[in-house]
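BUG: 3D viewer hangs when loading the predicted structure for this chain

Environment: internal workstation, default settings.
Expected: structure renders.
Actual: progress bar stalls at 90%.

Input used:
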Amino acid sequence: MRHMSDAERTRLRQSLVGNFLLLLFGLGVLGFLVAIDRADWFTLRPVSGTSVALSHAATSAHGGDSAKQ
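Structure tokens produced before the viewer hung:
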């Protein structure tokens, strides 16, 4: 097994950290580009049929008809 000097070990660690940060940056940019293309992913909407029914019931109980808009 090869013994590494402190300078080589430091250089390797800096290289790995730099590559990891570059990977994180690239994934962040990719996530941002996907997110701006899919803005409808971030709208709040009911998850289940039960929550849809409760939402409609609450809206009609208050006299509003905003559920159909």
